[in-house]
């Protein structure tokens, strides 16, 4: 049985007081009962504080990015060893905003995925297509290519440590959401690509999340789909009550 995961990507939002207040309220609201695994990714500056606040709760803390090198002359970067050192357990890699604004490629994402699993960090590797690629019939080939390139050299043992997040670029922060049928179709393409690379049994164990304007109104329909195992939530994760409602309405299979 695959994990069901709801991850909140706070992006470049929330300063210290808001991090403290939101995490404290969130952990209080999601106590008890069978729920999805919950991950929150604050900005780098507050990771150590977030880890401390989440200690002893059922919330895991993720970084939003990292470098693939252990150390060195990489001004402004943060290494996987540094994330482990402050207690981070997960890291988002290859988000479309990183690819768009910071020129990340499938090759650099692949290096980061390898570095993450080598340091026992769980990578949430993102993939997704633009509206133009979807309308031009190139979505399937694009998604397959991102999965194959991003996971190049990752063993069958290590792929079990990876989470895939499908984020249609045309739906991120736009208020537009892929329908459950559209999202399921792409997540099935992802799982079939994993099966091609690793075999069906291994592919069945890898969680595949949906990201792209997920909210409390659509989370149940999306997570009811066979190959969608949760979500990577953006703006809707910034308020504790709203995020807690999403978590509560998530279908845990």
UniProtKB/TrEMBL annotation:
Q: Quick check: keyword Isomerase in the entry?
A: yes
Name of a matching Pfam family: TIM
Catalytic activity annotated for this protein?
Answer: D-glyceraldehyde 3-phosphate = dihydroxyacetone phosphate
What is an annotated GO biological process for this record, any one? glycolytic process
Q: Which GO terms describe its molecular function?
A: triose-phosphate isomerase activity
- Location of the active site: 95, 167
Q: Where's it mainly located?
A: cytoplasm
Q: Its pathway?
A: Carbohydrate biosynthesis; gluconeogenesis; Carbohydrate degradation; glycolysis; D-glyceraldehyde 3-phosphate from glycerone phosphate: step 1/1
Spell out the subcellular localization from the entry.
Cytoplasm
UniProt cross-references to SUPFAM superfamilies, sorted A to Z: Triosephosphate isomerase (TIM)
Q: What class of enzyme is it?
A: isomerase
What Enzyme Commission number(s) does the record list for this chain? 5.3.1.1
Question: Its family?
Answer: Belongs to the triosephosphate isomerase family.
HAMAP family the UniProt entry points to: TIM_B
Subunit (UniProt): Homodimer.
Any idea what this protein is called? Triosephosphate isomerase
Native organism: Anaeroglobus geminatus F0357
């Amino acid at each position: 049985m695959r994990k069901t995961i709801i991850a909140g990507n706070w992006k470049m939002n929330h300063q210290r007081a808001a991090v403290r207040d939101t995490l404290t309220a969130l952990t209080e609201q999601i106590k008890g009962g069978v729920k999805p695994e919950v991950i929150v990714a604050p900005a780098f500056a507050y990771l150590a504080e977030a880890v401390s606040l989440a200690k002893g709760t059922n919330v895991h803390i993720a970084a939003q990015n990292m470098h693939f090198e252990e150390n060195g002359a990489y001004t402004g970067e943060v290494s996987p060893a540094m994330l482990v050192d402050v207690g981070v357990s997960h890291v988002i890699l290859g988000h479309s905003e990183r690819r768009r604004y910071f020129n990340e490629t499938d090759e650099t994402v692949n290096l980061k995925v390898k570095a993450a699993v080598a340091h026992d960090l769980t990578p949430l590797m993102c993939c997704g297509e633009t509206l133009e690629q979807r309308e031009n019939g190139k979505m399937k080939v694009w998604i397959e290519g991102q999965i194959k390139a991003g996971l190049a050299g990752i063993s069958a043992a290590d792929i079990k440590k990876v989470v895939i997040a499908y984020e249609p670029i045309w739906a991120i922060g736009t208020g537009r959401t892929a329908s459950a049928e559209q999202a399921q179709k792409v997540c099935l393409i992802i799982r079939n690509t994993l099966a091609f690379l690793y075999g069906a049994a291994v592919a069945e164990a890898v969680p595949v999340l949906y990201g792209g304007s997920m909210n409390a109104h659509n989370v149940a329909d999306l997570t009811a789909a066979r190959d969608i195992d949760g979500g990577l939530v953006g703006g809707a994760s910034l308020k504790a009550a709203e995020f807690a409602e999403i978590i509560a309405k998530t279908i845990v299979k």
